[in-house]
Amino acid sequence: MPELFVELLSEEIPARMQRRAAEDLQRLVTNFLVDAGLTYEGAYATATPRRLVLAVTGLPARSADRREERKGPRVGAPEKALAGFLRAAGLASIDEATIESDPKKGDFYVAKTVVPGRPTLDIAAEAIVDAVRRFPWPVTMRWGAASSDAGALRWVRPLTSILATFGTENEDPEIVPVEVPGVPVGDTTVGHRFHAPGTIKVRRLEDYKASLEKAFVVVDHERRRDQILHDAKDAVFALGLEMVEDDGLLTEVAGLVEWPVVLVGRFDERVLALPEEVIRLTIRENQKCFVTRDPATGKLANAFILTANLVADDGGAAIVAGNERVVRARLADARFFWDEDMKRRLAVHAEKLKTVTFHEKLGTQADRVERIQALAREIAPVLGIQPDYAVEAAAVVKGDLVTGMVGEFPELQGYMGRHYAAAHGAPEDLATAIEEHYQPQGPNDAVPSARLSVVLALADKVDQLVALWAAGEKPTGSGDAFGLRRAALGIIRLVLENGLRLPLDDGKMGGLLMIAWRLWEGTPLDTEWKAQSAKDYDRFDDDGYGGLRGPVADLSDFVVERLIVQQRDAGVSAETVRAVRPMVTTIDLVDLVNRIAALTDFLATDDGATLMAGYRRATNILVAEEKKDGAPVQGEPVRATLVEPQEIALFDAVAAARKTVTEAVAREDYAAAMTALAALRAPVDAFFEAVMVNADDPGLRANRLRLLAALRDTTREVADFSAISG
């Protein structure tokens, strides 16, 4: 099977870029080949710390001939037009064109030509050059004598050679004639930088892998990864320990070595008094090493796993000793930060937040903590937490941000605060809340359930959303630098997964969003604030639902849009959410989701689908007649003036449904409301089968239109069905 094989050999390819680079090489080359008219059966790409490797199999020897047609001018057109057509089509004379007829335009010339295929070898050369020139490295450099030339080749590190061959399995392949100035091209590569730096001739992928294996290079990234994991587990198992697996670190280490050799080092056992995450992060970040655990106790052990890139003559003793020296020094630094931080309680650390700017328009971190405290006071009673206790907890929730340890390792924020608080005797729920108040940080992150944790997490995210929104940091289509979408989703998940009946806004300037807005403004939350806020901000629509206008309304809509995304990911149609949203003036997320669930279940039934059809028919008639009359249908239908038994039956059914639906919605029994609507299916069908709405009698027509309007209004007690298509 014909195979195109490519290796791009560099001085270095950073580990974090390798996987993406292999994918980019495959994409760029195969897309070019396909665009040039070549098909292929499969492609394989991988990377090592020095190499990008690509094999494309099942390519033909040349691209297929291609037939092209070019429509020309009409027969009898001026000579100048004919001459231009001949040049464009590549014809020697008009006699080489054919004449075709069009019933409307008459006879015209058509050039039918065959574009011959090209050798795959030539196309592959162009594809490789194109890929090298356009490769999307996040950072690049120029090198050598040509580095002063702005048009010189740029690569992540100096590109030292290109290996490119094409041929079938049973023959010697040809070297692809790639031309990249300053970079040698051929059918050879080199092995491990220290163990086998000599030249190796290559035919195709399989012998490339085998040859490099003998030259101390494991080509496949996944194989290196699996080898490190297997050898590491075996090495520490022999010591009675187990490896603490770290998938991200494993991928990174596999990108740092071509010939992985697993070794085990030790550090001072007294360091194990530090919090586990401090030890793990120190060893991981500074030395790219794995920590180990004692399976008997479940605690970290004083052994770590390192991965060398060569087989040392001394069995790795010098490599281990060097790593141990660095790990010892880094852990000593961590111990110093811990000891220094522990000299002061978290509340004392928190005083330094006054010197840390949160945002130029929002003041310091201390200012932010004050807003979080005020929000925590409002939220606490909903979760049965004493407001004063919530305020006390919120005062120290950001205290670890100014500690030495978090300054060294920012990813330990919250985690260190928990340990510092616990070490100084803080209640367990407070220490836990300091760590958990950052959660959830993504759609798959855990959501805290401890009551104080939920209070502080919600206060933190509401302030983040509102304050940064107010400061003009709204998300755009191209970015969300301050994570406001993530904050809104966090609010949604905290509320829903803990079942909190805590309105974000109540349509009359209440709710968390308005409270947070006032805190940003710096106005007190006194007894007069609602009235004043209503005066400043309150606006209501006349189309059936109240809605805040202005900045807080925009925030409310933003959260609902995030809810739509969250519900869509759970399999709920966005139309269903938008059908329910106008029916509520209070953004109580639990209530909103309960309505959405009931409507979703209802629409999935035969009754729901049939009633939807009847609803659309009714609203279409109403819209048409209201447009004709120039005014909306007003007033209630009068039963006594109805004539047909089917319209009388519909009147009675609508009256009964309206009463039941209103009562069910009031007690939040949305399933009962949907059941009441389902009872309208039969009388609606019977009405449209037997009754003509546009009767000759104007009074009867008007009454029937009022009946349809009553049907529409009854369904709107639950949802705006017009928002649902299909």
What percent strand?
5-15%
CA-atom Rg in angstroms: 36 Å
Poorly predicted tracts of residues: 536-549
User: What is the structural class?
Assistant: alpha+beta
What does the overall shape look like?
flat
Residues in helices, as a percent range? 40-55%
Tell how many strands the DSSP assignment holds.
17
Major beta sheet summary: 6 strands, mixed
The structural domain count equals 5
Question: How would you describe this structure to a colleague?
Answer:
Residues 536-549 have low confidence and may be disordered. The chain folds into 5 domains: 3-62 and 119-214, no CATH class; 66-115, no CATH class; 221-341, no CATH class; 355-597, no CATH class; 605-723, Isoleucyl-tRNA Synthetase, Domain 1, CATH 1.10.730. It is α+β, with helices and mostly antiparallel strands and 726 residues long. Strands 1, 2, 3, 7, 8 and 9 form a 6-stranded mixed sheet that branches. Strands 12-14-15-13 form a 4-stranded antiparallel sheet, with helices on both faces. The protein has a 3-stranded antiparallel sheet with strand order 4-6-5, covered by helices on one side. The chain is built from 26 helices and 17 strands. It starts with a strand and ends in an 11-residue tail after the last helix. The protein is flat.
